[in-house]
Amino acid sequence: MTSPSSADRQVEFEEQELRLPPISPVALVLGLCVPLAVAFALLAMVFSGAFLTGRALSDPGDVVTYGLPIARTIHDLAAATMVGFLVVAAFITPGQTKRPGQAGWSQTRATRWAAWAGSVWFAAAMVVLVLSGVNISGVAPGDPLFFPTMRTFLFGVELGQSLVVSAVSILIATSIAFTARRLTSVGVACGFAIFALLPLALSGHAAGSFEHANAVNSLALHLVGVTVWVGGLLALLLMRKTIKGGYGTAVARYSTLAGWAFAGVAASGVINSSLRLGTWSDLLQPYGLLIVAKATILILLGIAGALQRRRVIPQLKAAPTERRLFARFAVTELVFMAVAIGISVGLSRSAPPVSQQPLTGDDLQEGLLGFPYPPPVTFLRMFTVFHIDWVWLLLAAVLAGLYLWAFIRLRKRGDKWPVYRLICWLAGCVVLVWVTSGGAAVYGLVHFSTHMIQHMGLMMFAPPLFVLGGPVLLALRVLPTRHDGSRGIREWLLLFTHSRFLRFLSRPAVAGVLFAGSLVVFYYSPAFQGALFTHEWHVAMCIHFLLSGYLFFWVFIGIDPGPARPAYPILFIVLLATLAFHAFFGVALMESQSILAIDWWHALGQTDNAALLADQHVGGGIAWGASEIPMVLVALGVAYQWTRSDERTAKRLDRQADRDGDADLNAYNQRLQKLNKRDTNAR
Predict the structure, then answer these.
(1) What does R_g of the chain's alpha carbons equal in angstroms?
(2) Which of 237, 335, 393, 669 has its CA 20 to 30 A from that of 158?
(3) One-letter-per-residue 3-state SS of 16-81
């Protein structure tokens, strides 16, 4: 036989070199979703006339005009991909059980996918940041004023600040995802990735405009819901060959999560659309027609999800390797989702029928508050005047509904759960609605005294009611236990309640400092005025005081599991010290001579400084008096628990004595006899 010539070998090598691996139809369609979303973003802007109504002080040029929506579309797709993969890795995908806490193969693979998606997301975020600055200022990169102008945009303009915070959060989440080996690290990366979405809500609605708070809150909920929904489905589709035996279970878990995401997207979409459309006839304008198109896609996706839950998931559970039907459904849904994301980007760059610009002149008060200036405050109006904060209302409704569902499920199973705990929890939800949407919230932005009522409601009234509801203990008794190496809500709750972080926070001194010390830090720093002028600081205030109040009361009267609590005398000492400090804070406000957040009150047109100072003194009295009743009740609760603890200890010792014939007492008496005998002999 003759060996092939070098020319034949060269031809064969070139043929092999030209032979590319086959591209699967799924990968091809998913790859086309990116240009599809970009195309629909541009088409939506053309349809709404966004290219004809620029937002810049001067024309930024075609690169910015067309590059910004393209970069934002890639940004949103990468965000959904990263969040989806991290959610799947942290909550859905089965793992390994040999090394507890260590991420399994499929979880590690999903986390690495998320890290690479995060790299794209961060790069797109930087491009969006620069292009947004150029778009707002109209100063091109080659201009000598570019860097000073960009510095002002990044650190002096709310849009720039929100984009910077988001980019930093993306970078942190990506860095953690690249190095994560344990599920806890994956969960932390997931938290940072979701947090990176929240500042983006500020870019969709100008501060000082009407209904700014509801617009920002609903958009934040919308962003989180969309990214979890879209990204989770994409992650499961791409990992269909990585997740093997537990694929049907993973899809079922995602389906439940997708149902919640769908509800959040639908509710927030309705709220946001109602704020941007003045009348029903606005639906016939280009902006309104784009909303109709997006809503139609949402309805179709909801129907597809219901069909998938009824037909596809049962088949996957029965035969986990038969994934073609699910893949077809998922690919079709992702195509529609890409179109919806493109339309959303186009809508964000288009002017709605209702102006989103800050209110000025005679409407300045409404612009600062975000709602009509209320009538003079009275005791009755504190309970009859409402301005609904829809996200807080939805949160309270969900908390109440979930607790009722768990209570009923536990009772049907034959287990007991005290009714008083249910009453306390529901009462806490009612108080939460009142302090965020009722008179306390409405007048809390108008007077210092009523603001202190809102503060006390968030810190003193709602938290103890929630604590007495025992939500963690109820969840642990109702939620199923997982045995496949993944972590559900129950597993994450158990991990957190036994973590070193909570062990540190639950020390009475730490909880007391966070509870009482934050009062001084908040009111005697720019944070108080910032919470009045800016929505993000106001939300941070509400969350901080709600959580610090919950932590404080849980340490003293909580029934949920957690780190071991100290002895009751220590609890009493810390409780009395906190009560004294709170009273000192109230007295300090009552005797103060400088007006806190004076710029805010003057901006509202309240320029009588003597009246402002008198109202501040009233607020100090409220801070002092409102803390007395809850603290006294908590002290009585601690005393009752102390008594019950002594009774339980006595009963336990009596039962032990009955079992061993008073062995401890006899040993103690024998020891006394030996000591007495030794003393007698010594004499």
Answers:
(1) 30
(2) 393
(3) HHHCCCCCCHHHHHHHHHHHHHHHHHHHHHHHHCHHHCCCCCCCCCHHHHHHHHHHHHHHHHHHHH
Q: CB of 425 within 8 A of CB of 469?
A: yes
Integer Cα distance of 393 and 599 in angstroms: 30
Determine contact, residues 265/226, Cβ cutoff 8 Å: yes
Asked whether residue 1 carries a pLDDT value surpassing 60, the answer given is: no
Query: Within 13 Å of residue 260, how many CA atoms lie on the same side as its CB?
Result: 12
Between the CA of residue 553 and those of 71, 476, 558, 620, 626, what are the distances in Å? 47, 20, 7, 22, 15
Nearest to 288 by CA among 232, 350, 366: 350
10 Å CB burial of residue 167 (0-12, 13-18, 19+) is buried
Which one-letter DSSP state was computed for residue 310? I
- Say if CB 114 and CB 72 are below 8 A apart: no
Amino acid at 423: I
Which amino acid does the sequence have at 541? M
Nearest Cα neighbor of 464 from 570, 622, 575 is 575
Q: Residue 620 is encoded by which pair of tokens?
A: 């100090």
What digits encode the pLDDT tens for the residues 66-81?
A: 888 999 999 999 999 9
Question: How confident is the model over 98-107, as a mean pLDDT?
Answer: 88
* Buried residues in 286-311 as b, exposed as e (16+ CB within 10 A): ebbebbebbbebbeebbebbeebbee
What sections of 180-285 are H helices per DSSP? Answer: 183-195, 212-238, 247-276
What is the C-alpha separation between 543 and 302, in angstroms, rounded?
A: 32
Which tens digits make up the pLDDT trace of 295-345?
999 999 999 888 888 888 888 777 777 778 888 889 999 999 999 999 999
Eight-state DSSP code of residue 88: I
Judge whether 347 and 271 are in contact, CB under 8 Å: no
Instruction: Give the whole-angstrom CA distance, residue 290 versus residue 47.
Output: 9
Residue with token string 């009963």: 651
- Count of other CB atoms within 10 angstroms of residue 657: 14
Question: Cα(436)–Cα(453) distance, rounded to whole angstroms?
Answer: 11
Q: In this predicted model, what pLDDT tens digit does every residue of 359-401 receive, in sequence order?
A: 555 567 787 888 888 999 999 999 999 999 999 999 999 999 9
Residues 6+ apart with CB under 8 A from 159: 132, 136, 153, 202, 203
Contact (Cβ atoms closer than 8 angstroms) between residue 638 and residue 557: yes
State how far the alpha carbon of 93 is from the alpha carbons of 78, 174, 243, 553, in Å: 20, 20, 7, 36
**What three-state secondary structure class fits 378?**
coil
| Look-up of token digits 């730490």 | 510
Torsion sign over Cα 410, 416, 419, 421: negative
Distance in angstroms (rounded) separating the CA atoms of residues 329 and 254? 14
CA atoms within 13 A of residue 379's CA, in its CB half-sphere: 0
**Tokens matching residue 197:** 């979405």
Note the maximum CA span of the chain. Answer: 118
Tokens standing for residue 145: 């004023």
Q: State pTM to two decimals.
A: 0.87
Q: Crossing angle of helices 568-590/535-557, nearest 10°?
A: 140
Question: How many CB atoms sit inside 10 A of residue 89's CB?
Answer: 32
Dihedral, CA of residue 379, residue 210, residue 396 and residue 455, to nearest 10? -50
DSSP 100: T
Output DSSP code: residue 312: I
Distance CA 308, CA 262 (A): 14
